[in-house]
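To the wet lab folks,

You asked to see what we're planning to order before we commit. Fair enough. Below is the target structure as tokens, and below that is the sequence we designed to fit it. If anything looks off to you, flag it before the synthesis order goes out.
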């Protein structure tokens, strides 16, 4: 066995991959764990062209079973393309051996499997373990969880701790979340608009869309309206609904940009279609008054109903007023459109 391993290593070093595989296979069949792990490594590195996919995966599974964390991670990513429970099994095995990337991936998996109103099982624990080992994305995720307070008691101090760690390592999402925390301040965390501006700018400059939207709002606060519009435009073009709404408001009022009611309507409707309630209510008003778009009481009523369903009080009042101006057939048509719109927004669940 030692001789076979030596010959395999020599062949591998000389890029004689087929010969290396042959020697490693002989050693592996004789029980050499190192050979099993080498075969797995060769397969995943793309050098084992003589090895078919099934054989490669079989060696990788044996390597994973021998405790090879790298093989576990590779298998998990390979199997992740299909809903195969083995992927999670190998992630769990790798996470149990304190592999931070596996712990982070397990955290994401558990978080995605959890209803938004419930605690995400062991996700927080996995994120915590990975974060403590310096995993930047885990630090960012953990900070966001403490900041959000949906799955665990909100803890601004812990949020600040983990977000700062990730932000200092250039994680844009952490920089943005840190900026949000500093903008408002909270128990144990002082409000600091100057530092919030710095962190938000870093995230915005890196191209992180939500940060660009927030950075626009920060400029609007200090009356730098043209700069605010510039940042909102960037984020709006990438689909950020808040930025689309703010840009539309600026265009409708001519603040920071030339006034254009038709262009404002285009951005309002984009935000409304994404589910932003203030935009939905505003679109209803614009259809009712004919500002920036041809007046259409049926469409106005439709959008008022959609926004009212989300709790918008003004939209509810406007829906009641609109109803008095429509006949039974038009009311029915508007409600049909509402139903169609709501159905179109329900994600399609594919079985596989």
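Sequence we intend to order:
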């Amino acid at each position: 066995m030692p001789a076979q391993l030596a010959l395999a290593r020599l062949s591998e070093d000389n890029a004689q991959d087929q010969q290396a595989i042959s020697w490693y296979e002989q050693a592996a069949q004789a029980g050499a764990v190192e050979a099993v792990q080498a075969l797995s490594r060769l397969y995943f590195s793309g050098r084992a062209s003589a090895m078919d996919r099934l054989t490669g995966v079989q060696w990788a599974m044996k390597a994973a079973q021998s405790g090879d964390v790298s093989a576990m991670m590779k298998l998990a990513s390979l199997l992740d393309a299909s809903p195969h429970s083995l992927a999670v099994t190998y992630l769990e095995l790798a996470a149990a051996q304190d592999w931070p990337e596996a712990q982070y991936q397990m955290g994401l998996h558990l978080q995605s499997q959890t209803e938004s109103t419930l605690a995400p099982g062991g996700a927080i624990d996995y994120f915590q373990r990975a974060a403590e080992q310096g995993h930047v994305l885990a630090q960012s995720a953990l900070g966001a969880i403490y900041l959000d307070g949906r799955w665990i008691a909100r803890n601004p101090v812990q949020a600040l701790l983990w977000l700062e760690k990730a932000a200092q390592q250039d994680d844009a999402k952490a920089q943005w979340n840190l900026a949000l925390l500093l903008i408002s301040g909270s128990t144990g965390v002082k409000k600091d608009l100057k530092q919030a501006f710095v962190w938000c700018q870093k995230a915005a400059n890196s191209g992180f869309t939500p940060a660009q939207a927030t950075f626009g709002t920060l400029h609007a606060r200090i009356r730098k309206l043209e700069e605010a519009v510039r940042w909102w435009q960037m984020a709006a073009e990438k689909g950020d609904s808040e930025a689309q709404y703010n840009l539309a408001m600026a265009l409708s009022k001519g603040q920071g940009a030339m006034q254009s009611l038709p262009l404002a309507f285009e951005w309002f409707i984009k935000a409304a279609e994404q589910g932003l309630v203030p935009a939905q209510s505003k679109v209803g008003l614009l259809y009712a008054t004919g500002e920036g778009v041809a007046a259409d009481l049926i469409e106005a009523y439709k959008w008022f109903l959609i926004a009212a369903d989300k709790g918008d009080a003004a939209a509810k009042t406007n829906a009641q007023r609109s109803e008095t101006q429509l006949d039974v057939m038009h009311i029915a048509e508007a409600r049909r459109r509402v139903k169609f719109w709501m159905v179109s927004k329900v994600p399609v669940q594919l079985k596989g």
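Structural context that might help your review: The two ends are 45 Å apart (CA to CA). Residues 167 and 175 are 5 Å apart (CA to CA).

Thanks,
Computational group
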